[in-house]
Amino acid sequence: MSKNYDTVVIGGGTGGYVTAIKLSQLGQQVAVVEKSKLGGTCLNKGCIPTKSFLKSADVINTMKNADLYGITPAEPSFEIANIIAQKDKVVNQMQSGIKYLLDKNKVDIYEGTATVLGPSLFSPLAGAVSVSYEDEEKESEILVNDFVVIAAGSKPSELPFMPFDGNVILSSDDLMYMEDIPEKIVIVGGGVIGVEFATILNAFGTDVTIVEASEHILPTEDKDVAQAVHKSLTQSGVEIKTGVKLEAEGVDIKDDNVSLTIADEVAVFDKALVAIGRKANTEHLGLLNTKVKMDNGVIEVNEFQQTKESHIYAIGDVTSSPQLAHVAIEEGLIAAEHITDNNPLVMNYSNVPRCVYTSPEVASIGHTTKQLKEQNTEFKTHKLPLSSIAKAVIEDGGEGFIKLNVSPSGDILGASIVGANATELINQLSLAKFMDASALELSSAVFAHPSVGEIIKEVGLDAEGIAIHI
After folding, report:
1. How confident is the model at residue 363 (pLDDT cuts 50, 70, 90)?
2. By the number of CB atoms within 10 A of the CB, which of 58, 61, 170, 423 ranks highest?
3. Dihedral angle at the C-alpha atoms of 278, 423, 321, 14, nearest 10 degrees?
4. Does residue 1 register a pLDDT over 80?
């Protein structure tokens, strides 16, 4: 059985469903094919559930350290099953919301596995999509289309000598449904996923060790940003070992534990979380039937998200862009507008915020100080402590700082915030950067008092040499 559509979107994750809705709004008949659950990794196994866990962790830590707010501390009592249930409640609510939005916008949903077909009797061009189902009695369907958008997302990468088994060697997916809190865990990888789960599990009472191959955790951020998170994690009891590259001969996996040789010493852990990155879900999409070009499974696209097969587009984690949900959303909007000849703005990836939901939070935008130095770019750095802002002191003692890199003319080249509300404050700098605001314009804007965001005005003032509170 076949059905015709203007565009078929493969993947109902954050980027996919937004693309489908936008295309429908632009007058197209659209279908989404999702083999698992609407919302994709972000909603079901990534951004949203981890933030639910982090909120639970934050409440635990607040109770333990209530004396910071003039309240007698208390040792919280909790069950992991209840924390999982709260996470599921949030996820289910958001899933229902996505389903409602797709239905409202008259987007057809196919709950099956998509395969892109080559030229056939259905279409002279590659791109018709076959949808198969787990229920073998259910007949597969062919979705004939003018355009395809691949938004299939990614999955956790594994080490060849530490393959995921769901028991001892875990992926971040496995921790979404943990029945028991690990007593002692090693996290292989000190990037965003690794440090966020270290924050979560440490609050839950797990003995946590991070092993990172680079010289510091959060290797894509500046060293002072990474050092702030390193210090906080260490103070909370997390052991961090950097500059450590694991070798197969130093790993011994058993039925109930794993032993790692680190700096000639053997350490035994109940569990190991491998958090070394994510791999594009392109293996079984049938792209070999097309002219789409890939590099190690990553789809090559132009600035409008078009592949070498001009009517086939790709967005999000299946491309080489940053693996962030908000990137997939914007790329999906670009693809939708290009498909419908609406002349979209090209994505400026230096305007994309990067957030790490540790304690303290970390958020950055633009080029890091290290990148600017490597590019021989002329700039000046202005760095202020959050302790100069009353609201930040109230929130968590004023821990952290803001750092602004500006050009000689005052253009914002990059910024980092470490501390209270950092992942919210970065949106203000994102808007400023998108609008090409200068440091002078930051200093001239009126910010509410008291608010942690006042630090943004203050760093703008500092860049102009007229700081008030420093």
Report:
1. very high
2. 170
3. 70
4. no
- Torsion of Cα atoms, 297 then 32 then 308 then 22, to 10°: -120
Does residue 214 belong to any structural domain of this protein? Answer: yes
> Based on the structure, what is the number of domains in the chain?
3
- Interior/surface letters 86-116, b for 16+ CB within 10 angstroms, e for the rest: ebeeebeebbeebeebbeeeebbbbebbbbb
Note every long-range contact of 399-404, with CB atoms under 8 Å and residues 24 or more positions apart, other chains counting: 399/232, 399/360, 400/228, 400/360, 401/224, 401/228, 402/455, 402/456, 402/459, 403/222, 403/224, 403/225, 403/369, 403/459, 404/439, 404/459, 404/460, 404/462, 404/463
**How confident is the model over 253-263, as pLDDT tens digits?**
999 999 999 88
The answer to whether 449 is a known catalytic residue is yes
Are 144 and 289 members of one domain?
yes
Q: What does DSSP assign to residue 291?
A: S
Per-residue pLDDT tens over the stretch 183-230: 999 999 999 999 999 999 999 999 999 999 999 999 999 999 999 999
Q: Which of 390, 407, 409 has the alpha carbon at shortest distance from 398?
A: 390
| Catalytic entry in 216, 382, 449, 469 | 449
Mean pLDDT of all residues in the chain?
A: 95
Number of H helices, E strands in the chain: 12, 24
293 and 146 belong to one structural domain:
yes
**What's the CATH number where 201 sits?**
3.50.50.60
Q: What is the pLDDT of residue 122?
A: 73
Spell out the residues 6+ positions from residue 177 whose beta carbon is closer than 8 angstroms to its own: 84
Structure token pair of residue 24: 């429908």
Residue 2 reports pLDDT greater than 90: no
SS3 track for 435-459: CCCEHHHHHHCCCCCCCCCHHHHHH
% of the chain residues with pLDDT over 90? 93
- The residue among 324, 349, 374 that closes a domain is 349
HSE at residue 29, side-chain half, CA atoms within 13 A, is 8
